Amino acid sequence: MTRYRIGLPLLVACTFLSGWGTGARAETGALNVLTWCDHEDPALLEPFEKAHNVKVHYKDIDSTGAALAVIQQSHPGDWDVLVLDETDTGRLADMGLLAALDPADFPMTDLFEGVSNPALNVVNGKMYSVPEKFGYNAVAYDSAHIKAPALSNIQAPWSAEYKDRVAIYDYYVPIIAYAAQALGKDPEHLTDADLPALRDKLAALRHNAALVGDITTTQQALATGQVDILVGGGEWVTAGMHKDRPDLAYLVPEQGGIRWQQGIAVFAASSHKDLATAFAKYILTPAAQAKLATSSCYWGMPANRKAVLNDADKAILQWAQQPAYIARTATYPQLTPAFDKTLQKLWTEVMQNE
Q1: What is the model's pTM?
Q2: In the chain, N or C terminus with fewer CB closer than 10 Å?
Q3: Are 54 and 31 in contact (CB under 8 A)?
Q4: InterPro entries, from UniProt (predicted)?
């Protein structure tokens, strides 16, 4: 979501606490965290700060690329903890940036089945991140105008019935992957041979859509009734607005959808590895998971099934549907730099051609 995370949305602009410049300097009694905005609520941070007599300083990032840019301009050891899209864990581990974690330190058996995926966070037998939050790029919709069964088929947004009632989230990775699923293709194994069919499928979707936009634009379009369907939407769009717009919902079609998945990691060069690991362990506790899931920045599913959420919040997140949703969704594809550029070019050409 641009939040160009190779993963997720930034629903509001967030600032970092200490007024730092690009770098942070390691200091006693402080933990320095590069994170997305959902980890910045005082209600989440204060229990850890009090328990460890420490101040958590954070800098808001919107992608793995942004995190790397900060690291390159910082001193070794300045940063302790990183929140990242787990699709990028292997790449950063191979760069020597992440410390190996002991699975025994974390409630791995309490995580949703299918979310804890060694293919994403284990390199050469060592775990480098722990899943902490996830959600979907599938379909968000206004249930006052369209009922869920009408959208249970992944082909629905391409239907002429919904011409100009559709918005497209402007992030090429999940939407191209979603289009691949609509073509019956595995988004994890796309090649140049798939590009012509993907181009045609994306062009047909763009022709049916009223707009292509960033998070704020598409969320507002759905909330104000400008559109009834958001392709690429999920709980991160609708859940936080439930109080004011209870008719907004999301679903994962029967043929599948795309799952974003956040992980938490410790920097290999951290000067406070024990404290950083303690913070990662805290984030996976049931109480912290509930606060992370209902962050003021954006909601999402907690990775820990024991998160202390009330029944109303679980209903908003569609807790009961999660095993089925997880089973039929694919995580973000791991792209080579060359193929990533190819997909960006394809996306730009198609989405700007209306």
Answers
A1: 0.89
A2: C
A3: yes
A4: SBP (IPR006059), Sperm_putr-bd (IPR001188)
